[in-house]
Description:
The complex is a heterotrimer. Chain A is mainly α.
Amino acid sequence: MSLITEASTQPAAAFRVTRSRRNVAWTGVGALVVVVVLALFPYIVYSGTTAILVQAFIVLTLASMWNLLAGYAGLVSVGQQAFVGLGAYFVLILGLHGTSPFAALPVAAIACGVAALPLWWLVSRLRSGYFAIATWVLAATIMLFIERFSSIGGGSGMPLPGFTGYSSVLLTADTYWAGLAVTVLAMAGIYLLLRSRLGLVLTAIRDDEVAARSSGARVGLARMLVFVVAGVGCGAAGGVLAISQLQVQPSADFSVQWTAEMAFATIIGGLGTIEGPIIGTAVYMILQQTLASYNAWYLIVVGLVAIVVALFARRGLWGLIDEKVHLRLFPVGYWLRAGGGAGRPRRMRWRRAHSFPA
Amino acid sequence: MAWVNAIIQGVLTGGLYALFACGLSLMFGVMKVVNLAHGDLAVVAGYIAIGIIAATHVPVLWSFLIVVPVMAVLGYVLQRTLIQSALDRGVLTTLVVTLGLSLVIENGLLQFFTANTRGIGTGLALVQDSFSIGSQIQVAWLLVVFFAVAVAALLGLQYFLSRSRYGRLIRAVADDKEAAQLAGADYRHVFGIAAALALATVALGGIAYGMYSDLDPTAGTDTILLFAFAAVVIGGLGSLWGTLLGGIVLGVAQQIGAQINISDELLAGFIVFLVVLVLRPQGLTSRRAQS
Amino acid sequence: MTGLAGGAGPAGGKGPIGDGPAGGVRPDSGVPLLEVRDLVVHHGQLQALDAISLRVFPGEVYAIIGANGAGKSTLLRTIAGLHQPTEGSVLLDGNDVTQLRPERRARHGIVMVPEGRRLFGSLSVEENLQVGATYARPGGTWTIDAVYDVFDWMRARRHQRTGQLSGGEQQAVAVGRALVANPRVLLLDELSLGLAPVVVQRIYGMLPQILATGLTVLLVEQDVSQALRVASQIQCLLEGRTTLEGRPADVTAEQVEAAYFGLASTASAGRPGEGSDSLWPG
């Protein structure tokens, strides 16, 4: 009697690796259409609506960045408001030297990316809980430091220069387009990043850091790049914030509230997917607009929803949709298609070869 | 002489910070939980005290006796329900859930108590008074009392942890919760006890804070939480007396900063925090390097 | 894997291996103290145990042997409650305990000494024992003093932190911590791991004393000869399945070797009528 159980042998099925299950080229076209429509808004809708949309753009950009940090690089930062504030203040500083705020915006964003490097050096060796607190303290420290300089407004802030001669209508429109541009660039950038080699490394790190390291992945470098990219993104959002507010104000620009907003929009929408922050931002803005007259209630509701989602729907609202429909607007994972090759496949079985954060 | 005054005040304030910090250290050391709502819970305790005093007109010192046990029970319940569920799902979930809790608490307080600050007036002459050492040094009685309360609380905690049955269980579960299970201990219950202790001490801190300065709904995240973490990190995780040392270092750094430039008080403290975080993350009292 | 204890026999190596304790005669009927029925356990998608069954009767020393990855520790951890089975059940005295959490099982008398000792490093020797005794079943003979009596060196060093002890000393404290919980079934997971052979012998030498107080032992061992020396009943696992079970006195070296490595049996080659095929499962 043999002790070795015969391993059940199956004919090796031919597998094909594809980026997405359905042809999503139409999604790209759809996205383009959406962007074009959005770009036309200043001609179509009231300025009140565009102002709300600018807020939404800021939150969406921030949420996408937080998603990149926490959902893909495993970095839970409670201090991204540092970059929001820095972005705002870089726009101010450039404005004080004569640059138009809109021209200053990309420069400010890049400056935030540069500033991210020494900040990363300070916190990179810390792990989870310590990392979170350190980022928060860093943000608070940066705010206190900036408040010392009365030339840039001290503790109460100052208005943004460079808007004289701007008609109100044009200003609203330009602010809107700046916000739209930042958001589109941010999301396109993240999409391309995750489809690149870096994206592969990040997924590997997320699944099993030790294995990734021993396979040669440059984990530290990957994380640093993500941190810098997030700095640029949050900084750009901060610049848009300053422009939309026409001023900088340290307590508002560096408020930990930004972290709460971006974290919750991401969690509610779905961590670890590009689509998640979109849904999360939409939910957040809807809550804000409908409950705004009840003062602090919308934040209470947001907090409660975030807790419930984090505990019971870990992949967020997009995760719930995704499970039913298997839809990816921004395909960054891989699908394994079994039964390809010669002849009619017996059965198409889709297996997702890309997993979610634990 | 102003410097001596500053340093003395810094040392004594360290006691208050230790009260905030030891609960955080306990929760992080035992459950590996970074409770982002920790500071807000201190503020809640302060507001409960205000509410009780306003409603029942009991002497202020009695409020300690009522609020501390209430917060301890709240801590147990919170741990067994919300925080345990989050812990079971991972570090990220725990951070998000405690951040959510912080948001809900702060905005809840804002909604019901408005953004105005409230103080806990004790009405005792003791509170306003200070005594003098020599001709130039003034020490506020209140701060001395807080320091004494902090030391007493730390002594009590130390005694509990080293001598009592549950103290042993808490230390055992902190070392290896699976092995503790094999020995018959339900670690969720032990976590609850640790959380109850943590919230009891933070309640002391919150009420003290309300007496010393004024409470407002955002004080939890604006000041208390960061001070607590600074004290824990500087003093060294896992060491109760380290939180006192950390609190003292923080307090002194702040006062020295204030002496240099009145608006640099907070900044000085945070800079010391960052320096320690970068150079010696295990803190001043720990012998091991952070793993 | 260490070499099998020499069962000197005729060419071909057939003959009884080891003898195990004389006691522990298996009853033909009756309720086993500890029973496992058709246990299926998975680690994620990987199947670790495939319909494992076993029965341990009071007073026995039941040893589970097998190579690395065979599923031995998984089996013990599932019995202790640290792992939930996909299918199957664990019974104590006929009562189904499969749904009970590990701490409840410990309080009912299933106490495990985990692999790697797992002492509470920041606690002293005595405090480790005290924690073990916190939820002890009442009425046991194993008090902390009784443990000190057996391990005479411990009393003098009881206030020392366990991190400073040697491997063998830590193992003794770990066993003591389990004993003071007054178990009915003592689960020993890889006692010999990381210890010098002479130390291992000394610890296993205590088993008679433990059994004399009415305990039953279920142990997992990589050191096959050691297991065969102390066990009254053995079971060999390979890739999550049982490949051999029976008394040490009734199995031959080749049978164990074949069961351990999963080779086709060579025991029946040569002389007819020799070799115990009846012990092969199914």
